[in-house]
Amino acid sequence: MFKAIALTVLLLAPVSSAAFAQTAQKKVDMSAKRERCADEGRKMGLFRGVTGGLSQYVASCVKR
User: Fold this and answer.
1) What are the residue ranges in the chain where pLDDT is below 50?
2) What is the spatial distance between Cα 25 and Cα 14, in angstroms, rounded to a whole number?
């Protein structure tokens, strides 16, 4: 029984670490895109705040 569990863990370990790496890379990419969109918005004169519009611009830019 222990051998079967150990074998399963060993076989699934590379899959889970690859999935983790892929998820981490997506988060890094999304963070970079969000920052790039925020920079674009600031260059357009948008700012944070209720009437600034920067957060709305960043949200729509990230979806593109």
Assistant:
1) none
2) 16
